[in-house]
Amino acid sequence: MSRPSRITHLIAGQPWEGTAERTSEVFNPATGEVTGRLDLASADLVGEVVTGAKQAWADSWGNISLAKRTQVLFTFRELLNRDKEKIAALITAEHGKVLDDALGEVVRGLEVAEFACGIPSLLKGGYSENASTNIDVYSIRQSLGVVAVISPFNFPAMVPLWFVPVALACGNAVVIKPSEKDPSATIAVARLWTEAGLPDGVLSVVNGDKEAVDALLVHPDIKAVSFVGSTPIARYVYETGTAHGKRVQALGGAKNHMLVLPDADLDLAADAAINAGFGSAGERCMAISALIAVESIADELVAKITDRMGKLRTGDGTRGCDMGPLVTGVHRDKVASYVDAGAAAGADLVVDGRGAQVDADGDGFFLAPTLFDKVTTDMSIYTDEIFGPVLSVVRVASYDDGLELINANPYGNGTAIFTNDGGAARRFQNEVEVGMVGINVPVPVPVSYYSFGGWKNSLFGDTHAHGMEGVHFFTRGKVVTSRWLDPSHGGLNLGFPQND
Ligand code: NAD
User: Fold this and answer.
1) In the predicted model, what is the mean pLDDT of residues 244-260?
2) How far apart are alpha carbons 426 and 431 in whole angstroms?
3) Total structural domains in the chain?
4) Are residues 103 and 15 both part of a single domain?
């Protein structure tokens, strides 16, 4: 067993050289080994980084031309494309997801960098000549200053990439606080910005836990916070950040339902349920965890899913398996306790992933795909976000019952309907109270030029990630009303300005 390597902050483009008062362990989830020891930032260090970022914004990035900003963005895009396999390997080593899936995550992040390359066009304002006699009116959007990005463990590359390229493209400085469970991919991507020519200090990565997050949430020079994580922390971040005068978008947890109608293609639906239920070991905010089957096809659908589950290989993500481990031993045990609870509550445990054979060395954090049928809505496997490879089938009598169940759920991140009836699908897209909807698509993650975000307890704040909503989140609008020297100005008039 090799010694854990030190993982530290990236400040002004350089690894931090100080000595941390506190550290935490980073694991390889496939083997259970401790591979890294992570420096955790103190509140004082976070304060120093924010001050440096503010200076870098004021000295350089906040006023740099759009032409120069886009050169950095285009170069970054090329570098990320060059290094995508290396970044994917870092994700697999610390998160555990299989390599293909890790690469997919980097590529989806890359698409946001591509979107941000179009920033000159995205920031164009309006101009009305002669809005009133000899008066022109135009709108501009300006950067905010220093913004913070606080990310979860499950997408260490993609989630920071939802925000950072757009925030930088809009002219802000950024401080990222990645998950302490798998920070290396985030740090590796951040290094590419320096290589792309981003001035020192405009982007820094501080590692840490609650202490670092709290320091960002109360710092007067942090103007906006983009947070992604579980619902209780998202709510806390939103409430604390807004109480300290910040703009906050806090994306929270999820319980995503997939409704299968009797006329659906059941083979397509069974494949989709497997892919969306067990991809990334269910550790996706867009994972399907509740499969809502109309009773008349439920037996056939469960049989098809069970049959497919028999062919899945769970193991080390570097070995071509279908599914990897869970992120930590603590999390694996929590997911296993939900399986215990589901069985004890009387759900039908069709496939039990506890203690299954896996293709890995060492003592990794595995729990193989698990399927429950005949789950009822009072069971904890239905009510809670498990965030693991546990799929629960809930049987309903009709479309209306399925819709009612989805709309009664406190979360509203993603959902999907499987049907061959265009009218039913259209009704669903209109009636369902969820932010992202798939029609015969189980994981409807929007492309980068649309915006990502849920409803209800899946998002606190008004603005979704990337797309035009991202551009608006990271800028402030200003409208200028201008008149150039005209000797025939009207003299004094204390009335409210009217247009003539
Ligand atoms: P988490 O809430 O534990 O952690 C998220 C971030 O908050 C991390 O950076 C962490 O260090 C920090 N944090 C943790 N505890 C904190 C505390 N007490 N005070 C302040 N900060 C704290 O989430 P996670 O386990 O890393 O990620 C999984 C969760 O994220 C799931 O609930 C998942 O649904 C959600 N998620 C949501 C989306 C979305 O788009 N809605 C996307 C990805 C993940």
Assistant:
1) 98
2) 9
3) 2
4) yes
